[in-house]
Specification:
Strand content: under 5%
Distance between the termini: 50 Å
Shape: elongated
Largest sheet: 2 strands, antiparallel
Order of helices and strands: HHHEEHHHHH
Radius of gyration: 25 Å
Length: about 220
Amino acid sequence: MAFKSGTTHWGSLAKFFHWTIVLLIIVQATVGLIMVDLPRKPNIIPVYNLHKSIGITILVLAVLRLAWRAFDPHPVMPAGTSTWQALGARAGHVLLYVLLFLVPLSGWWFDSVTALRPLYWFNLIPIPPLGAPDPALKELARDRHEFLFWVLVVVALGHAAMAFVHQFVSRDGILSRMLPGRRGLATASTAAISPLATPLSENHDAQNPVPSASVADPAVRGPGA
């Protein structure tokens, strides 16, 4: 599998970032929704620590993924994609990136203003607070974190829904080129705008040149040819 992305596929590193973040968000959402209903006892502290550590991990991976995108070529949009679809896809990706930063940062801020205990990444690395403890901001920080989380859920579901529409309705292979272990098939629409895609007929003709009818048969060329 190619390490870097190409015009018709995502590279292995881009796929790693994408699917690792997806998996961690699912785990994070599950842990977060469960822990808020747990009885307030000392044995829930490891659960909260896990939730915070996963959040920091998602933030770090989002930074690395965004940095990698600056050097990694992006697959082209299929030919025939309308302007509004291309703009919508770009806006959706930008919003996803913003939320991948804001949701963990808001949780980090919430932990900082409450200052219940020092924050450690998986009990290994100390994480400094984003600000001084401030009980007056506790409810605001919690509400912002929860609101941003639900916005992320809605945007991520919309992103997934559009990927399925492209794959099974438009059939342009958008989802296939992000699947692990798949290089992504160059559909006719993609090949039309990809400089790397060479039609099979051209390869065949190059190896077995056959004069076309318009050249071989003077009758077909017409008068004045």
